[in-house]
Structures are given as C-alpha cells and as structure tokens.
Amino acid sequence: MALLVLAFIVIVLLSFALVVGITRPSQDEKAIDRRMEEIHGSVGDGAKISSGSNASFFKPEKASSFDWLDTIVRHYGFAKRLQMRILQANSAATVSLLILSSLGLFLLGYAISWFFAPIVLADLAAGALLFFLPYWILSFKRSRRLNSFNVVLADTIDMLARALRAGYSMAGAIEMVSENAEEPAASAFKEVFREQNLGLPLRDALMQLLDRFPSLDLRVLVTAILVQKDTGGNLADILDRTVFVIRERIRIQGEIRVQTAQGRLTGWILSGLPVIMLILLNLVNPGYSSILLTDPTGRKLIYAGLAMLAVGAWIMNHIVNGIEV
C-alpha cells in the first residue's frame, strides 16, 4: 500500500513538473511582457511615450540567455547606448553577451600576457585590448552598414522622387522604395512603412529611421521631407536638389580619401613599426630585450614608449581624418 502511495506521489510530482516546464513563458514572451509593462507604466504615469519607447515597442529586443544581467544593466546609460549601436549594426548580439564576452576576453588577455611577461601594467594593457575587441567588432559592423546605406541612399532618394512624380502618395512612394531599393536602404524604408501602417506619424517614423541610421545624408533627406510637409512645395524638386548635394558630397569625400591615403598609411606604419621590430628582433635573437622586462628602468621605458606611440597615433589619426565635408 505504501509503495502505491509513493508511486502516486512521484507521478503527481512528475506531472506537475512537466506541466510547469511546458507552460513556462519563453524568452520572447518574457520580453513582450516586459515591454508591455513599460508602455502601460508610461501611460499610467501620464508621461508621453518618447521616440525611444516607440522604438522599443516596434523593434523588440532580442531574447537573451542572460536575462538577469540585462535586468541589472538595462537602466544604465551605457547599456542603452550599446543597445542602440547593436540595433544600428543589425547584430545578433545582446548587451549582456557583449559585457560577458568583454570580461572573458580581458581575463584571457591578462593571463596570456602574464604568462609571457609578468608586468602588471603591460598585462592590464593586453587585457584592455581584448576587452574592447567585441566593441570594436560591433563598431566595424556598424560603420560598414552605415557606409553601405550612404552609398545607395542617393539612388534611393532618386527613386523616391520619381515615384512622387508618377503620382504616388508619400506612403506609397516609401512602399515602392522598400520593395525596389538596394539593401540596407530597402529594409530601412520597409521599417518606416510598417511603422506608418501601425499608426505611427510620419515624423516619428522618420526620426526613428535616423536613430537606426545616424547618417548626415539621411538627416538632410528627413529635414527636407519634414520642412516640405510643414511649409508645402514641390517635394520631388526638393529631393532632386538633395540628391545632387549628397552625390557632390560623396565625390568630395572620395577625393579627400585619395589625397590623404599616403598620410593614413604612414600613420599605420609609424605606429606599428616599433612593436613589430621588437617582436622580430626577439624571434631572431631570443632574450635580446629581456633587460627591458627585468630591469625597473627598462619597464619604465616600455611604458613611456607605449604612451608616446598611443599619443602619436591619436594625433596622426585626427590630422588625417579631421577633414569633414
């Protein structure tokens, strides 16, 4: 009898655990509930929902395996800026994943550097380089996507102007652009069209587009559309002039990059040559620079040399890339 009761209790507990496991909300459902609570909380407090709140409503955050860390850092400014950069890079990463990856890479870089050269500042510098590696990769993807968007933006605006001349409304022209333009402009304007269909005003949809693609050329386009919407005028002619300005700006930027190519290459060579020569000399003659690692004065010289290299690279970068059009 006792065995039957025990078996019944075990079956009930297993059934309960199975039901709990099946009915437990998924990561996406948790994210949806969290966004709905934020929206209801903003409305309940009588506060106007900002553009950022609308952006989080229309563009849900990716589900993360580290919800506990997302909950801790989500209210901090750096996490919001990092989330915006992830959105701009169209990356599959999350804020928590980037933070944990950076911490893991920092420990890895520090351990490897300490194994070869147990110098605290040098080990911390090696760890810091790997710590910022995920952020640099994200910035590279963001820059590449923005550059791709800027390359096709002029043709996209030209297509928008032709659609307006053909008799399309502004919403219809945006839909046509989203279907026929090149990527990533097509997906960007498709998001604008989708948000308009969901009831978001054109001004807010365009401002959110600027958040996703912080491009100076796009800002010119959005300003032209919003000014024409308020004051009137022939929008197709305005867009034609905007396309001319953007194409001239791209042409001048290309000429500047050609003229400064030698300076940029010289900066990279001068910044990396001392480090590369030190590594090569130690490979050819092992122990050649061991005195720099063991003697206190040698360590100070290493710190001073690295600091001067960093300052020189920063100055050359600002001299070459400080020209704006």
Q: Do you know the CATH topology of the domain at 141-258?
A: Receptor-associated Protein
Largest beta sheet, briefly? Answer: none
Straight-line distance between termini: 88 Å
What's the Cα radius of gyration?
A: 28 Å
What would CATH call the architecture of the domain at 141-258? Up-down Bundle
Counting helices, strands and paired strands, the structural category is mainly alpha
- Poorly predicted ranges (pLDDT <50, ≥5 residues)? 42-58
Question: Which whole number gives the mean pLDDT?
Answer: 75
Query: Can you give the helix content as a percent range?
Result: over 70%
Total number of helices: 16
Give the CATH class of the domain at 141-258: Mainly Alpha
Report the β-strand fraction as a percent range: under 5%
| Oligomer state of the chains in this structure | single chain
Helices and strands, in order, run as HHHHHHHHHHHHHHHH
Number of strands: 0
Superfamily (CATH H level) name of the domain at 141-258: Type II secretion system (T2SS), domain F
What does this structure look like?
This protein is an all-alpha fold and 325 residues long. Among the domains are: 141-258, Receptor-associated Protein, CATH 1.20.81.30; 260-325. It is 82% helix and 0% strand. It has 16 helices and no strands. Helix 6 (95-116) packs antiparallel against helix 7 (120-131), helix 8 packs antiparallel against helix 13 and helix 12 runs antiparallel to helix 13 (235-259). The termini are far apart. The model is unreliable at 42-58 (pLDDT under 50).
